[in-house]
Amino acid sequence: MPAQEAPLAPAGGPLPAKPTSPAKNPALRAHALQTALDAGRGAQLLDGVGEASAEWARASLVGSAAVRMLSKDPTTTLMRLELGARKLLEQHGLPGNGVPKLLDRLVAVGVLTKTASGSAPYALAVSGEEAAFHLGDVAALRTSLAAALKDVSANAPQAQVRLQSLLLRCARASESWPRYPVEARWPFLKAVALLDKREQSLLCDVLAKDPGLRHFPLVDTTLLMITGRPADNWVKQYAPRLAGSAVYTVGAEGWFAAGGLGRVQQYHASAMKQLVGAKARIVTVEPYYQQSAQGGAIDYAKLPAPVLGLKKTPNITMKNIMVNGQPVTAEAYQGTTADGVEAWLIKDPAGRNTKTCYGYDRDGQSSWEDFTEFFSRASAELIRTLEAKEQAAKGAKYMPPAIIANDGQAAPVIPFLQELEKRDATLKDAATWMVTHTYKNRGVFHGSAGDALMARWQIPNELRASFWRVAEADVSSSGVRNADGSSGVSAVHVDEVNYIDPNQSLIAITNGDRRETSSEVYRKILSEVAPAADPDAPTAAEITLVKRQAKKSLGLNPDQPVISYSGRLVDEKAGRERAFTDENILALVAAGAQVVLYGNSWPGASRA
Questions:
Q1: Per DSSP, what are the bridge partners of residue 282?
Q2: Same domain, 146 and 283
Q3: Angle, in degrees to the nearest 10, between helices 217-227 and 197-209
Q4: Confidence grade of residue 4 (pLDDT, cut at 50, 70, 90)
Q5: How would you write 432-497 as a 3-class SS string?
Q6: What is the pLDDT of residue 34?
Q7: Helix (H), strand (E) at residue 381
Q8: Is residue 437 assigned to a domain?
Q9: Reduced to 3 states, what is the DSSP secondary structure of residue 129?
């Protein structure tokens, strides 16, 4: 059963919160998160991962029907549950058979529980709000929010307290899956996005003025979504450890975006800078490529997100960067972005490792192994050099940095930092984090090839075990296992790759986006077909106009639905062996859909 709610203050007043509660104390919140991770290690947010059917979708709808009915009447009979669930399934165009089996599935995932009553065999196992979060029942959350806000607007008795109580229950429910802190909040955020502007404004006012709620991550995320700006004291309130320090994020692409990783690096770095402002440095580290994978010259000052202020000579030159047992020179160039992010670009003067983006083993460029060793060792040394200067300048006020390594080519930064620490204590208190972004770009070497890699990189014996899984060496695992924490890029990604490193609890930090960039075409078309429309709150009719015009511009039938994929044409993304098999495409076309795959071919796709 759900935990007992804390007593609420009188109407209009703030919710009580002790200064030492996890909600107000970041250190206690971090401890509470770790405790929750240890206790609920196997708890999954998503149901049906890895299944070859969509029964999870039918179970979600059955759960929504059952939760609504049992919330109103705990004595609801099995027959009424079946009728209500079947009706909802059929409204969504899904078969209504097999409801009892789906109800038992909901028992297995902890939404429902079986009772000893023959007439009312099922009861809620969690609060209605937690069930709505688990099932993704956006409509239920929106209905509850709209009703509570309507009462507040009408000055109904105790309306403020009831809204506060609802928000508190939602905030707590969103933290029921600590390994999925981003996607666990989505049902509530979607519900808020569906409120009208007046309701959103009223909700924002309530949240911003209530210190008892303001400390919950769900509330902070909601305010960020509505207002587009962080609180003035965001760092002090949510990340005090970062005050006066730096966050380094290292990746094989960034401001030059060859693929998805670069865009993620850009969006995350810019968003982090918006959150911390002048309270902390946000620093990106990436290779200083001369040309793209397709051979085009790269001018970093003319990129869509340009790096400004780069000099022709390096700001820092690093000698004796070991690559395949031989010392090489690395040069680091400093620039900045329009968002105030500090950008460092690393290259080797000889052009063996960083001449061509992802140009391994061609046109005189080195192998994946040598590029990865060069870039990771040079990045670790660059961070050590920069932080040594910070320590010397700040003395007792110095705060150690956080260092994030992204994907296979940067994963060795983590174990290489441990090697550095043996001879230089500059980064001994740094917090390290590893993000694995993909399924295939892990750097896997089978059998004797793994032994050869360990010898090539001269990995100390005490670190070699962190590379190995069964009979193969996994470079990404070395980052995951040696870092202070690690994450994947979505809930399903974490669920599908965490088995590789079973002793680590991967957190699902779902990739962010810059909506203005990703919705650029939509906004352009909307401005043409409905000039007065609000692009962030379009009506259904306006969306229809945009879709019809977009289909026409591509030569598609505007009266038929379009099912499409747009992105890299690699197995793990394009879905040609999953959703978009030939059989499925033919069935979709026969049903009246237009199926379009906009695939971007990619050199060396087998490693992508």
A1: 247
A2: no
A3: 130
A4: very low
A5: EEEECCCCCCCCEEECHHHHHHHHHCCCCHHHHCCCEECCEEEHHHHHHHHCCEEEECCHHHHHHH
A6: 53
A7: helix 368-394
A8: yes
A9: helix
